[in-house]
Amino acid sequence: MNMKRFSFWVTFAVLVFFYLPILMLVITSFNESRFGGVWRGFSMRWYFQLFSEETLWKALKNSLLIGIGATLVSSVLGTLAALSLHRYRSMLQKAHYGLIYTPLVVPDVLMGISLLLFFVTIHLQLGLFTIFVAHTTFCLSYVTFVILSRLQTLDHAIIEAAEDLGANYWQIFWRIKLPQLFPAILSGALLAFTLSIDDFVITFFVAGPGSTTLPIYIYSLMKFGSTPIINALSTVLIVATFAIVWIVQSITREQK
Amino acid sequence: MKSKFEEVGLTFPSALWLLVFFLIPTSVIIFYAFKPGDLYGGIQEGWTLDNIKNLFTPHHLVILWRTIWFSLITTAVCLLLALPTGFFLAQTSLKNRRILLLLIVVPFWTSFLIRVFAWKSLLHPEGFLKKTLVFLHFVNDDTLLLYNAGAVLLVMIYTYLPFAILPLFTAAEKFNFNLFEAAMDLGASRSQAFYKVFIPSIKPGILTAFLMVFIPAMGAYVIPDIVGGINNEVLGNKIAQRTFVDRDLPEASSLSLALAMAVLLPMMVIFWLQADSDKKIKKKGF
Predict the structure, then answer these.
(1) Is residue B105 part of a domain?
(2) Does residue B107 sit within a domain?
(3) Nearest CA of chain A to the CA of B37: how many Å?
(4) What pTM, to 2 d.p., does this model score?
(5) Strand runs (DSSP E) across A66-216, as ranges?
């Protein structure tokens, strides 16, 4: 078969593979029946049941709280880290780079258990605070690399022009670099927030009693709870995700 | 002197954070792996090699072997699917490419747990896929699609496939497709041109894709836990079980150390191969 045609069909199959489970989940969430195999008529009852789940709302609140905290701290730390990695070429920065790169290639399970052991060793009570610390740690590396890649493509002519006109580093930073970096910091922050809201494995290790986040709540439903509720909850979350993606896409397109 | 002061000031916050919350915790694993545990989930005084020796019991070796085996199959299938997809994306028009890339990435912005759950309900004995396959007479009514190695591999491939597609697409995008035609003008067949010209020039992308799939696959925990059942435990499950169920932190640590080694070794080989192919490319003057 023609190479191009073959690659088209593989791509097509991959996309069907990607969307089939999600589509089925959304359809099942409106099914009166508890199971996906039989259609017993359209129903919104699982959605109504969702609203009366108090634990869900508490978990959502915890997730948002941790997400916002971890996003703010990791964005500030990540911006500083990217600036120093971009500006200096020293042994210190080589070590700094290694320190920021390594968390990206460490499997989640390892990061989770190492933080758990650390918190246990220093007798820190597990809870919202330890989850916040863990999330900030893994978000930091992602934020740094998003901002660093933007720094590397900044237009140097503008910066040199400012230098020629007598601006010092910090003037250049506030007046030129920061405004140009702003979209990168924003997308880094958005990535951090997404990663934090979605993280299950690391959170599971460092969570304590009463610090249930949304993924932990979903996991406990999956293991022990009622499945139709998860279908409804998943559909709500999928629609929310697609809406956010669409909004971000249209904002970035307008900027171009 | 002032610049050095500024450098330290800029570096200090992130470096300190990662030193305290990443480097030290990682070293704590090594510390715990050599400590004797007590019955109440704590550790005792002194040092021991028992936890390390325990890794070489048949029970643990089987799990280690299964983890590597699952990860290798997942990586291989992901690469096989991602190669044609990356090839197609790189060749199609700019407009189609943007839409397709978005279509590939979007499902993976939805929650990871939800995607695993979606497969669980698809494969469920009362689920859509099972019913359809029975209807088409592909499987019997009593075939179990869930809780076997196939289910684990299927969901792992589903989860990690985009991590293979994106680096392969990036590499294929840089490929000069005129070389393809040049090879065919010089008498190569289509598949010869593909294997002898295209594949070697996207080798760095293949190596990156390998790492992007293999590392998270080795650390998989949720997928075998949800769709695998007890006969398909991998290292991640064992670590979680020792931590949460048995409260045996020293053994959880020695298992984590084994996982770290199993990830680190192939990673070093890949980095070495990548540096090697960089050198060759520079020498040839591409």
Answers:
(1) yes
(2) yes
(3) 13
(4) 0.88
(5) none
- The pLDDT tens digits for B180-221 are 888 888 888 888 888 888 888 888 899 999 999 999 999 999
d(CA B73, CA A176): 49
Handedness of CA A42, A43, A46, A47 (dihedral sign): positive
In one-letter notation, the amino acid at residue B114 is I
Spatial neighbors of B134 by CB under 8 A, at least 6 apart, are: B140, B141, B143
Nearest chain A residue to B194 by CA distance is A3
d(CA B15, CA A93): 10
CATH number of the domain to which B98 belongs: 1.10.3720.10
Kindly provide the residue ranges of all beta strands, DSSP E only, lying in chain A, ordered along the sequence. none
Number of independent structural domains in chain B:
1
CA distance B231 to B152: 11
ipTM: 0.88
Would residue B36 count as lying in a domain? no
**Radius of gyration, alpha carbons of chain A:** 23
Question: Contact B250/B31 with Cβ under 8 angstroms?
Answer: no
Q: Which 42-71 residues of chain A touch chain B by CB within 8 A?
A: none
Distances in Å between the Cα of B161 and the Cα atoms of A12, B141, B190 are 14, 30, 26
Q: Which domain holds residue B229?
A: 60-280
